[in-house]
Structures are given as C-alpha cells and as structure tokens.
Write a structure and sequence with these properties.
This protein is mainly alpha-helical. It contains 5 helices and no strands. It has helices spanning 6-27, 33-53, 65-84, 88-109, 115-121.
Length: 123
C-alpha cells in the first residue's frame, strides 16, 4: 500500500476517533450514563478499526499486525463482558490495555517507512 485509499482513510479515522474518545474517558467520571454511551461509541470505533484492518493487506497477505487486530477484538469482548458482569477491575485492565495498544500502534504508523508517516512528514 503506497497511497491513501478510502479503506485506509476509514481505518485512520476510526482509530483517531477511538484515540480521542479514549483520552476523554480517562478524564471523565466512571459509571455514569455518559461514560456508558461514550464507551459504546469507543468500542464500536475500536471494532471498526480492527475489522477494517483485515482488508488492508500488503502483497495480498495477512501480516503479524493482523494478530493484533484479532487480539483487539478479543479484548473488546472481554472488556464489555467484564463490565456487564460487574468485574470493574478486569474491565478497567482490558480497557487500559486496549487504549495503550492503540496508542503504541498509532505511534508505529508514524515511522517514515509507513504510509501515514510519509504523509504526515512528507518523506
């Protein structure tokens, strides 16, 4: 992939939405109706980001990065499941882990050898 396709634009947009919403969630009170609403939107944006990645392939093949997408989907299920069961410490752990993973993955996309890095830095 050496150009910004609609699929990659969607992937980037949903990831940026999740990054922004996640940061806001850390600053807001937990357990409120707005926390639940924003959390649902965050989960949907993370799922969209992860699902969308399966159609982004170089050379027509999956790469190791797709394992992270599968792990993300599993983590989202676990986070929601724990919240519904009232296991808030486990819910919190999954959510923090998923957010940190998103931030790290986002940082790696800014490397000059990556599409987003070359677009952002003009290299």
């Amino acid at each position: 992939m050496d150009r910004l396709t609609p699929l990659i634009a969607f992937h980037i947009s949903s990831a940026l939405l999740a990054l922004g919403l996640g940061a806001a969630m850390f600053a807001r009170p937990k357990g409120t109706p707005s926390h639940r609403l924003i959390g649902r939107i965050w989960v949907a944006s993370m799922a969209a980001t992860a699902f969308g990645s399966f159609w982004i392939q170089s050379s027509g093949h999956f790469s190791w990065i797709h394992l992270l997408s599968a792990w993300t989907l599993f983590g989202l299920v676990m986070a929601v499941r724990n919240a519904r069961r009232g296991n808030i410490p486990a819910h919190r752990g999954w959510m923090i882990g998923l957010y940190v993973g998103l931030a790290i993955a986002g940082a790696f996309t800014l490397l000059p050898s990556r599409l987003l890095g070359s677009l952002v830095f003009g290299i």
